Each structure stands twice: as structure tokens, then as C-alpha cells.
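Students often ask what a holo structure prediction actually looks like on paper. The answer is less mysterious than it sounds. You provide the chain, you provide the ligand, and the output is a string of C-alpha cells encoding the 3D arrangement of the protein together with zinc ion.
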Amino acid sequence: MRFELNEKSYLAELERELAIDSVTGQYHELQDYFIKEIKALGFQPEVLRKGGIIVDAGGEGDPLLVTAHGDTIGLMVRHINDDGTLKVCKVGGLYAYHTERENVRIHTRTEAVFTGTVQRKNASVHVTEDELNKEVADFDKNSFVVLDADVKNAEDVRKLGIEVGDYVAVEPRFVYSNGYIKSHFIDDKALTAALMELLRSIKEGTVVPARKLYIYISFYEEIGHGGSAVPADIKDFLAVDIACIGPEQTSSEHKVSIFCKDSRFPYNLDMTRELEASAKEAEADYVLDIFTPHYGTDADPALVAGFDVRHGAIGPGVRASHGYERTHIDAIKSTYSLLAAYVSK
Ligand SMILES: [Zn+2]
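The corresponding C-alpha cells follow.
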């Protein structure tokens, strides 16, 4: 039986989540949003001390934890340059060439927000030698943030309240067109939004957990320790994250992928087979895939932290991961159907 995603509700949820900046470590606003929404659905969220939300979604026996991460890659002010531009460094795997000419928001310690753009030192074609035009963007060499403010030196910038250590979030540029979802940070808000839809379905009774189910919104996946603090009684850990598309990848923007292995570990064989059986039952269009050399999910740190659990991962095929990402609603629908079937089993 196929579990149908409420497309309208899902897209509205995704857009709301994308509009809230949440670079790893800068989780408060998004966490507050989730707490409010989860309580409105009648569930009681538990909040981790380091940031993160765990929801007991009902069911009994053999606890299964399903997670997606609310944190995104982003930037931080590294140094205020003498000319009033900002040198930035990456938080997680966000490279300069994926942020060129993107608008950004700078979040200060006093919660003021300033806007700016990532620019090259030599940004204007007309007055730049060809050699420099061909240079790859690099935050240590030729790329920085230009503020939308009349600042001429570092002192002017500091007067605004901007300081070293301030978070700099890239505007997601969400677009939905002909079934295609285009945005920064589809990784992993496409899936936190899917988990919120799952909670809605559980509340409405269209999905009934067959075993105890925890939903976990992590805020530290992009730096590798989101999965290290989870309830002690869990038996299985399922990460829902993006399936990267590339040469020799089976993943597709129209399908859900079941992960066999990432850069760190093979996923639990029994659990992978169960997920495949659920995909068939759920009439989900699925593929099996492997993700190397630069990929791990929040399921990996759970094992490293010492939890004796089985781990698995699934997710929609996503193009241009950590860049301007794209997927299709088909892949989200198949991911949702597989997920709903697996927790109902
Ligand atoms: Zn991710």
C-alpha cells in the first residue's frame, strides 16, 4: 500500500523551514519553530542540552529512532578586513565556489541581522584580466562578504555590532517549478519537513507506528555529531538524508535511495533488506546506492558513540549536493511512502 504525501502541506512546511537560517550551532530559532509546531500537533518534544529535539511519536516495543537534521552548512565571520569587507570561513562543507554572488544574512550577537553578498575581489568582468576571471573562488584568497551598508573600514563594521564569530547564512533561494524543488539546504530540510508530515499523519491516524517511534531533529549532522546523543533504549537508527547524484550513482531526482554504504561504514545488512522490502510494499520507486568518498549520515556517530543498534539510511535523490541543490517531488513522495511503511511494520 502506498502512503500518500500531502503535497501542499509538505511544500508549505518546507518553505517555512527554509526561511529560518540554521547554520550548524545557530539552531535556536529553528528549534523554537519545531517545538511550537510539534506541540501544536499534540506531541511533547524533549530538548537536548546541546540543541536538538526528540519526540516520542507513540507505538510500543523495540524502539526505532528516525532522524533528519535541521542544521545546514554555512559561514562565519573570520576577520573584519581593513576595507570593511568580511573574511568568512566555512561551517561544514560549504565551499566559496558554491556561494559566489549569493546573498547572505549576518546574524550578530545582539540578534540584529544585516544583509550582504559573497563577492570576488575582482568581480567585474570589464575591468579584470582574463586570468583572474578564471580563478576559482576561495575564501582564503579572493572571496569575501560585501555588506549592504556604507562601511569604509573595520571600525565602521564593528559600530554596526558585527564581530568575529557571527554566523553568516546563505539565502536558500527556494523555487518550486513543475515538480522540481530547487534551493540551498534541501539537505536536509526536505527531510525534516517530511518528518513533520509524518507526525501530522500519525496524529491524524493515517500512519500508526507498529513499534515505539522516536522522531529526532538533529542540529549537528553537518559537523558529524548529531547522532551521538539519542535515547538509551533504541534498537534501530534510521537516518533520512539526501541521496547524492553523480557519475556511477544510481540515485535519481525521481526516486528514493536505500543506502548500502557511505564513506565510513556499510549500513546494517538486515535493516537495509527490511527497508527494501518496505519499499516494495509501499510501492516506492527505489534504488540501492553507495555514497563515497565524502558522505556520512547521523546514523554513523550513533555507532561510534557506542550504541548497540542497527543503522540504516534512506533519502531522495538530490542533484548538486551542498551547492544549489535540486530534487523532484516524486523522490520526496517515494521517500515518504517508504518511511511511513517502515515505521508501520
Ligand atoms: Zn544531510
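The helical segments are 7-18, 28-40, 130-133, 154-159, 186-204, 269-281, 299-304, 329-344.
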